[in-house]
Structure to design on (185 residues):
């Protein structure tokens, strides 16, 4: 037998692609500790923390507005599934985390959608999961956006826009619903 036949089959690894944006990223060096465009391999049992405390967080942001531990990501496997998923938890007592327009308070957590926008303060993270086979490891890869992700990807705004097109310029005199036929506008 050749060494080729004896070699282990290489498994694909689940990868979380994270595109990050902050308006002051160039002046303030906020993302200085993040290695962009390189895939970092992590153990699937690891809880990955994001915040400003370099002693407890795997990825740090140099910004006093960020909590010591802002949020965490943890890999898990749903019951009766072979696909790995991520869970996101807000670790900040001061700031809510917005995941796909759902607000997470302190210690609230949810399954991370396959593709979603995560926000807090001026920070925006577009997270996209690439499925893999390995149960031992996963990877995270960062890229930097110079434009706001909220506008670039046509995500819904935080406050709803009324039918007149502007949130503040609508008349507020008649707030009761008006019944109309399907051909009336």
């Amino acid at each position: 037998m050749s060494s080729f036949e004896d070699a282990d089959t290489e498994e694909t690894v689940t990868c979380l692609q994270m595109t990050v944006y902050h308006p002051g990223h160039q002046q303030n060096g906020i993302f200085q500790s993040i290695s962009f465009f390189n895939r970092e391999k992590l153990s699937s049992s690891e809880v990955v923390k994001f915040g400003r405390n370099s002693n407890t967080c795997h990825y740090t942001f140099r910004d006093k507005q960020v909590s010591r531990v802002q949020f965490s990501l943890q890999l898990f496997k749903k019951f009766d599934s072979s696909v790995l998923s991520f869970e996101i938890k807000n670790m900040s007592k001061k700031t809510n985390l917005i995941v796909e327009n759902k607000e997470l308070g302190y210690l609230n957590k949810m399954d991370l959608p396959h593709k979603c926008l995560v926000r807090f303060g001026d920070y925006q993270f577009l997270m996209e999961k690439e499925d893999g086979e390995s149960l031992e490891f996963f990877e995270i890869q960062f890229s930097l956006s110079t434009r706001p992700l909220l506008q670039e990807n046509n995500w819904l705004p935080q406050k709803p826009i009324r039918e007149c097109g502007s949130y503040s310029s609508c008349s507020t005199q008649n707030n009761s619903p008006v019944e109309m036929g399907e051909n009336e506008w």
Observations:
- The CA atoms of residues 19 and 143 lie 5 Å apart.
- The radius of gyration is 21 Å.
- Residues 3-6 form the longest helix (4 residues).
- Residues 157-178 have pLDDT under 50 and may be disordered.
